[in-house]
Amino acid sequence: MLFSDVHVDRRYCQHLVALSEQADVVVGAGDFGSLRRGIVKTINWLSSIKKPTVLVPGNAESYEELVSACSTWPEAVVLHGSACSIAGWSFYGIGGGIPVTPFGSWSYDFSESQALELLKDCPTGGILVSHSPPFGVLDISSGGQHLGSTAVLQTMQSRSPRLLVCGHIHESCGQQYEVNGTTVVNAGPEGMFVEL
Questions:
Q1: Is the pTM here over 0.85, yes or no?
Q2: Do the strands 76-78 and 82-86 form a parallel or antiparallel pair, or are they unpaired?
Q3: What is the mean pLDDT of each run of 10 residues along the chain (196 residues)?
Q4: CA geometry: angle at 33 spanning 194 and 80, to 5°?
Q5: In sequence order, what are the beta bridge partners of 178?
Q6: Domains of the chain and CATH, by start
């Protein structure tokens, strides 16, 4: 089960907990908090999920804040420039807003060059979890602009993940798109299922 961008909404979290019972693995692609607040509250609601869970920080919480919030949730692993293996699948994660957002100092953001450095160890053929979508794919804002990441796009093109789970651009949430053998999912807060 895939989701993103719950932003301290208890109803979404309760819905996701119920949905997770049908899942083998749960992936959360960031933005658990809102303006760096409510992160612990959101994770407390979600920690009723008892399936293996992979999370990356969004731009609404930092890696350190998310790791701290998840310290009592044994099923959850937080990735950011790092990998884990679950059920024979390699997961690699990168969090934050990429490229740097216009939201100011509260937003947990990275430049494209910083993101490329964080993505350099991404394995081939696995599952890439990125808060930011790849540039040009499920990344269109309400103003019609592409706001995705060129670093995530380059990594998708060079490492050919089977699945790329993202969020961040709310206007594209709940959608999926196939690109050269990679299923890209902008998950959104309602939760989605993908079979691999």
A1: yes
A2: unpaired
A3: 98 98 98 97 98 98 98 98 96 98 96 98 98 97 94 98 97 95 98 94
A4: 60
A5: 183
A6: 2-186 (3.60.21.10)
